[in-house]
## 1
Amino acid sequence: MFRTAQTFFGLLVVTFLLMPIVAILPLAFTSSVFLTYPIEEYSLRWFVELTTADAWRLSIMNSLIIGLGATLLSTVLGTLAALGLRTKALPFANLLRTMFLLPMVVPAVVLGVGMQMLFVNLGVASTYPGVIIAHAVLCVPFVIVSVSASLQGIDPSVEKAASSLGASPVKVFRRVTLPLALPGIISGAVFAFATSLDEVVITLFVAGPNQRTLARQMFSSIRENISPTVVAAALLLIIGTLCLGGLAALLRWRQERIALRAAP
Amino acid sequence: MQPFIQFESVSKSFGSMTVIDSLDLTIHKGEFLSLLGPSGSGKTTILMMLAGFERPTRGTITLDGMRIDQLPPHRREMGVVFQNYALFPHMTVAENVAFPLEMKRLPRHEIARKVARALDMVRLGSLKNRRPSQLSGGQQQRVALTRALVFEPRVILMDEPLGALDKQLREHMQLEIRELHKRLGLTIVFVTHDQSEALTMSDRIAVFNAGKIEQIDSPHAIYDTPRTRFVAQFIGETNLIEADVVNVQNGHATIALGADLAAKVRSGPELQAGQKALFSLRPERMRLGAEPAGDNSLGMTITDCIYHGDHMRVQLARGNFTFTARCERLAGDWTVGTQVVVSFDPRDCTVLTS
Amino acid sequence: MSRASARERMGALLLIVPLLAFLAVFFLWPLWTMVRASVVDNTVSRVLPRTAAAIVSWDGQGLPPAQVHKALIEDLRQAEDQQALGETVRRLNSAVSGFRTLLTRTTNAVRDETNSGAIDLGDLDRRWKEPRFWLALREAVPPYTDRNLLAAVDMKRDAGGAIVSEDPGASANRLIMFRTFLVAAIVTLACATIGLPYAMLAAAVTGWKRTVLLLAVLVPLWTSLLVRTTAWFVLLQNEGLINGALQVLGITDGPLPLIFNRVGVVIAMTHVLLPFMVLPIYSVLLSVPRNLMQAAASMGAGPLRAFWRVLLPLSLPGLMSGSLLVYMVAIGYYITPALVGGANDQMISSVIAFYALGTANWGLAGALGVILLLVTMILYFIYGRLSKSPQLLGA
């Protein structure tokens, strides 16, 4: 009986967690303007709307531009810092690490208000660079966590072996450290991109109408006038994030396999 | 002795893999039984079935005449000492030891009294308020042991309890456990893969291989008269040679070891002339000398000597026939190439016919 | 310190400096800007700098000395930014009504070319002979103020400068803060109630069952927050799947109100934050040796007692950090309450956004932000202490 209760509870929670995501997806293919079941007739009209309506098309483009920019910026800065944090001789390493992770903790609205005030003064409010920078701030912690984890997985004796075999520090980094850390860097970049793609709050504060991202566009259309286009966009985002998540998982799995093979 | 615990044709499979195959095993009250075998031989599975963490796929287990194989573990009253001790990290030493008594719902003052006495017995009284993480490996081991003993279980089960200790501590704990066993008259089932541990501690040893018991006997018998090739090889070191039985008479048999080598051995009724057999002789039962002595004396050449501190290991050869012998020291002028005579007592030889 | 490790240290610093500078400028500076905005009040002192400098020497008794009068005249003559001047007038008028007409009249008079000689303010308008206008001016010129911080918790200074509560009904910030903490507590409780047994289940089973249970937690975590909120929006609406199912099953006659109210907010937030509860507990439980439960059983503990005495105490650290994490994220939540909640479910973040985006009241937005930031940082500090590693989940 205990077993049955356990199974039932497990199924219930799994349903609670997954059902919402699964349940709305078919609505992207409805031909009706209402987001209700049953679906009388299927059509792709909302996908057509998504790709042809100016507001949506622009927002998709913006999301890609801003996402790529923020990913590039945060991955470069975050990877460098994670490499620096690895050195044991660094003073205040823990304090620095905590500070680098803070953007994940500070409530988005608080950061948004501050950024809006400052960005107006700096003249970058409602510009692409401004939005990219704001997103990059939020993405940095993910890169740090991911790259640090993969650096931690590197057995220091492998690098010592390389230098004992005659590799200079730069060579050791290029031929040993970097290839081993690469999966972590890539999965950090993936997380960064996904974070930027999903970001709404900061965007509300620092972006102008020209930098409206897909998430921002979805937010206002849910708020003002929900239509199945939102669900079509959601489907697009789910497929996008699942692909990215799958890629990250694959990389992690590959890294674990390398680690396993290297273990004696 | 009355059988206390009995396994009757017990089998255990995990999926399609059979780990224990139709096993019969009797454990007597008050005995120290070791289950010895390589990893994966099924000895731990036996222990887990006895403790109730695994259920037999087929067969029955009885304790004192009562079937226990369907009882849940918490109703079996068996004290288990786990390999990693399984001490509760969130409880102090005293709380760990009190746990089984609380489960029995003993009155509080009695629990306190028993805990104090048990901890004093293993000299841990002063550490009773420490957490397990603040103890050394040996101390943790003693807490685990005390915790398993304190509620006076009917049987104590130990799953390689000394595996994590260093050599010296391990030998010390071996003595301590043996001493407790004698003093309290405990029934102990002890799983180990360390043969010397099994030999020193046990009343009986069950040697496991691939889910079956190869031999169950006293340590003495296991070492001196192994009954299978596996036991002969797994316990201690031995010279194992394919041989033919030439003739049998008056409780002795002559065995041909090679083209021009023969040995006289003690023989039971199972040996018959013309049989194929396996001849086993322990290295330390050989004597090396310059002259023949006794029934079995073979002239051989020293091919290698290895120094081991308390003994020497000597490789001997005659044609393509080789022996390893073990002796305390070599005569002064012996070196590689010296001709010596190897002699041994017929009673020290074992012949396996299977 | 050897030379090699000093060089290593330099190298590490060089690697860290770019990010450090980036975050200092684009993360810490914005936060600092917001904190400043909540306490800096230079509306008046920016427009009337000379007056601000002169009036501090006045003890507030009687009327201010002549140099203050002179400074004010000079300031009003020089003031060029009409918008800033307008703000100053509005700010002073809200302190003492009548200030608008007084200042407008005075400004017009002092700027009149024909009045280039000495001007006596008291002659120009009798109101300058009343101390209360001067007192209001003195009150308004200091560049730092606690007005916004007090207003954020529904308090103000009365005429005598003592801190008093705002009239009930005038502002709802305290109510909204209380609501924020309450909703976050309910959500945390819901997550703990579901998450603890779920994490235990996930740690107890093996093989594909564990994979399924963990994937069910990770897939939502990977899925866009907006998508999940959209999903709940669609499910909870009156014509949505849940109400449809309830009616088909005959449990209810009409649609239950599930959206734009507290129920909807709690359900959607619990769904979003549940992974943050499950994963810390699960990882704590993974480090618990399996045979602790076996050991408890061998000593006579039945499943329930073994759970109560062994598994539950051991999972408490995970439960604690999971709860802190959920609570910390929940109090700063904006999107979900904004989309699924009604007018009475808006949390502190929504109010901040309202003041910042809607009314451009930076001072009050900043003050509320400071409070939210402070609470979050305290919770994060405790969380860091408890979990020993400051890393959050999600990566």
## 2
Amino acid sequence: MSLAKITQVKALALAVPGDDIDTDRIIPARFLRCVTFDGLGEHAFRDERTGPDGKERPHPMNSAQAARIAAAKKGVMVVGFNFGCGSSREHAPQSIWRFGFTALVGGSFAEIFFGNSTTLGVPCVTLSKEDLAECDAFVRANPDVEVTVDVEKLTVSAGAKSWKASIAASARDGLINGKWDPIADLLEGADAVAKTAGGLAYVEGK
Amino acid sequence: MAKTLFQKVWEAHTVRKLPNGQTQLFIGTHLIHEVTSPQAFGMLRDLGLKVKYPHRTFATVDHIVPTNELKEPYSDPIAQEMIEALRKNTKDYGIRFFDTNTGNQGIVHMVGPEQGITQPGTTIACGDSHTATHGAFGAIAFGIGTTQVRDVLATQTLALSPLKVRRIEVNGKLAPGVYAKDVILHIIRVLGVNGGIGYAYEYAGTTFDAFSLEERMTVCNMAIEGGARCGYVNPDQKTFDYIKGKPYAPKGADWDAAVARWKSFASDPGCQYDDVKVFKAEDIRPTVTWGITPGQAVFIDEKMPALETLNAADRQTAEDAYAHMKLAPNTPIKGTKVDVCFLGSCTNGRISDLREAAKYLKGHKVRAGVKAIVVPGSQLTAIQAVHEGLDKVFTEAGFEWRGAGCSMCLAMNPDKLVGDQLCASSSNRNFKGRQGSQTGRTILMSPIMVVAAAITGQVADAREVFKV
């Protein structure tokens, strides 16, 4: 399985503010009633975007900027801290990715969400609190300026600005080497797997 | 060298180091359900792969089961499609399925322990963040995404990075009216909803030693709400007693060998932890949430926090929370009017929860205008409860008695809040919209506090209501 090497994502950006944004808010549970991930993109942040009366409410995902990102099928979402907490549902990063976002910049990410995103080839990089505030402000003030998330050099830059970014070393390695989906590596280890299994009595029901 | 249980289990299951620096970890037990597995089977088919160790994957159905209906075809055709997809997938690949007609169906995190599938010193993965529940037995149990479900099906392994270990010690005796649920809500309140990122939580101390396995499950269940991907308690005699005789428990000579092996996985005296936090059981009082994260909690006799006492980041989330919850800062939570009471979920839907709730409910009536439902987490729990007559206690008091499933913990079945109803809930998440209405409101609490709320029609202190 050959995957693209994801060294950088350069795209328009959208700030979606708030800390502790859980995966129920990213994709409400009723949209998990499905047997494929198709069509999840249009429901990303559905209940944040649409009121109980069915009318759109003010939310970054309803903006013209979001529509440009959806049309371009590439974009950078700038979020807060502990983004993607709660349920392990892969439907959450799937919906963000299918909407059109190809990278996330935040203060911190919940672990399962981070892993699910990486496996989709969507880098989630973090900035320091101060840099994130600056990045967030820049993105709001300059909607036409593309933001570059450089996974290899570990920077987020836009216009004349550049901020130092972090990402787990294993995720960076997987993304820049085109091995962000681990299945090929996992399949290669079949002999070693059999050896480990052989040493575990309970695997044979003992 | 002295090691933690986490380190020992990790080493025993390490296949090899991967090129990206992660560990290829063997997953001895894989649990699947109808929500996060169909896409994984789809990926498997697309890649032309088989299930590598079908006898190490176990399936059940829980999230979409209509606990009020229990008859197929379900009124929701998508729910019907999902259960049928799981039937087909488990049949095609030779996977054991605890279906609704087996008497063993239930919430996946209850089925594993009930069947004796959940064992100490093992690795467990499931496409559900509450998989940490199984850590109560001294297993390392991870919640995973759907692509990872594919990885486990195809290879019985995952690519993971090791976690740090934080020992959370609670010592002493809990006061009457204070339960395991209060302990974990308190821990999350103090350490924060993201305090556990990068950690496995080892729960220890005399309070945990005294806990039953079911109480330990309640605490481990909510590790993820504190940001920790897994939580565990070292196995002891209570653990072995719980497992003994269960359908998948080792038998005969294998049993003694298994117990010896299980004991060897417990953390060694003198092992190094990356962090240690110590709590006193006496300091913990009945705890309820007031906001939209499980960390936004207070003792029942406290006021909700004043905004000016919070730091800038917490304040923003709190303002959002107060607006959603329609509650006012610096006022008591006690006395808040309740519309719905939900007793159930993988956190508090076990037999001991139902027994404790019924003990206090007996002789009382649900307040007029309050909708109260009790949902045993599994069919075995339901059967046992009926055997003990608990169902009658609940129905005579005015609770609806339901079949087994996830029900109102999350809104994937007919049980949903309507409008801005406020729900006193024994579940694990108070996120906006979690219980099925965008404007619905959730207050998390222990089962006995849910019963107190049902009787009084408001958020109440069970210690006062029942004079405990």
